[in-house]
Amino acid sequence: MPLSSSLAASAPDVSLACPACGYDLRAMVGDRCPECGQVIDREALRVSSVPWAHRRELGRVRAYLSTARQIAWDAKALRHEAAKPQDPQDAAAFHRVTGTILTVTALASFAAVWISAGGYGGIAPPRLPPGAMANGAPPGWVQDLIAPWSAGATLPLVLPACLAGMAFHLAGVQRTVFRGPWTAAAGPSIGVRRRSAVALASYLSAPLLLLPIAVAVVAAVPFAASVAPAKAARLLDQPKVMGFVGVAAAGLVFAAVLGTLVRVGVWVARTTRGGPAAVARGVGELVVLWLLGGAAWLVVLPWCVGLAWVLIDALR
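User: That's the sequence. What structure does it adopt?
Assistant: Structure tokens below.
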């Protein structure tokens, strides 16, 4: 039996892929990839470099913040992680933490809007009489279509629950992008790279952690007004100050959305090696999933709950 065949037969079942080209290294002889010449450290390729995977040694807070920073800034230390085995349980735990942070942010924002609007009265659109249509109000059938959503949205806990679901959707939906068809250009070890890519996708929501900072920037205005009313009043009277707050918050939101799209595109290119077409397809799919998730959680679900409530109320 040839030497290469005997080495392949004795190789472990777990695939070992070259971080540069994705070549299956289980039958490799020497310390360089036979496909691209990359110097290979076998032991390093068997251990994840994602800080979150070592949270027991680093501490959960430090590991989480370090992982979020490295993913958001595309740290060089993590650029070849798709070639290493990644634990799906670690990725799922990171997703849960990120989803929880986004949920707290969404619920805090909802509470602030709810208080400032004086309760649910500021959320549900009023039912206008037919004669009001001449003044530019929507036609009656449109109001009838909106009525179930209003009924559902104004039920206690419905909107908060929908916001929580939407937050977890945003924190993990990008994993779906990495479950699609892969090309042979990903290398002979497509299986291990796909599994690692799906796990790594859970970390790609890290740029969305800018959203809590954006909310904190906006919340700083009423907080300052409550702590130091006199000084806050002078600041709030200056258009430049309020303009800066608005621009800063909008900039953080834009950076969170764009950063997530960019990171997904980058990792699609690294893991599938499908070129610009694969990147565009992956980013476009993520945008569609965001829109569908928003429609499902914030429009369809409250509407269905409201319709059920209206029917139940009508049968009483």
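The CA atoms of residues 211 and 254 lie 9 Å apart.
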